[in-house]
Amino acid sequence: MNWLTSAEEYIGEMEKLGDDEDKAKKCFAGLCPNPRARYQISKKVEEYLEAVAPLLEEAAGSGFLVSYPLPPKEISIGAAEGFEQFESRMPILNRVMEALRSASVHKIGIHGLPGVGKTTLAKEVARQAKEAQLFDEIVMASVTKNPDLKKIQGEIADQLGLDLRGETELGRAYHLKEYLRKKKKILVILDDIWARLDLDALGIPFENKKSEASSTGEEQMQLKILFTSRDLDVLPCDMGADEKIPVGILEDEEAWTLLKKIVGDEVENSDLLLTAREIAEKCAGLPLAVEAVAKALKGKGAHVWTDALRQLKRPSKESFMGTLAIVYSAIELS
């Protein structure tokens, strides 16, 4: 391949330019940059780039595939946005973490009403698991009501730094499996499961059996899967979850604390206090509803708060207008 030989020659020249660049940064005793030398180098770089462009076109036409690993898009290990360490939430979080540490539990499902905070909880689980170094890899993907396997595979691959472009769905699944099998401890979080999802077709190499005992006699954790779903029946029946953990609504005082945190404590010392209290109660203990309503009402006048309460007292999609209609839709789709 003539283009490949030429490309290798240009690479060598560019590496030499890199050495020259280091020298050009100094002119005397390392005290100042050498502008003349640096200008000459920049002109050479432009010439090389112009020469390499047609080689890239020739490479593409030859069917030769040039690939490189993508930088992984890791789940942020900062505090999960929206997660509050309320008294009602901590036992649930602790139970999930215990299940992740258990050698006998491989599939964990958390379930609850739309808007109750399942996704937020799952992200906090990922953060704590990463902080505790429980797994070599932690990935999270959104499944939704109409799952798109290619999109889900892409989400997982991006977080692992894998490039699956150009692959068929079957090929993508194969490469995902091969990569994951090389890892000793993996946590895959599949958020918003509505019905049975074919893990094999997705590329998750899950085997529903205990791993072999190690030389110390302890079982090694291999692949763990955490599901979130609004439907309890989906978890054991369709996905074979070993542990089913319910996520309940917030206590009234927790909902009020969350609303105050968003709109500001000054609401307690204003004419809005009674209205704000009632709005927090009407959000039915759903964190998503409390957050959305509070953000919409922050800084607004009394008439806006009163109108919001009026709409919340008639909880039907038809009665909601403006901001609250958006809130209702968000809860319905979560």
From TrEMBL:
Keywords: ATP-binding, Nucleotide-binding, Plant defense
Listed GO MF terms: ADP binding; ATP binding
Keyword Cytoplasm: no
Keyword Glycoprotein in annotation: no
Pfam family, one: NB-ARC
SMART domains in UniProt: AAA (SM00382)
Domain of life from the UniProt record: Eukaryota
Boundaries of every AAA+ ATPase domain copy: 104-251
GO biological process: defense response
PANTHER family: NB-ARC DOMAIN-CONTAINING PROTEIN-RELATED (PTHR33463), RPP4C3 (PTHR33463:SF198)
Protein name: AAA+ ATPase domain-containing protein
Annotated organism of origin: Rubroshorea leprosula
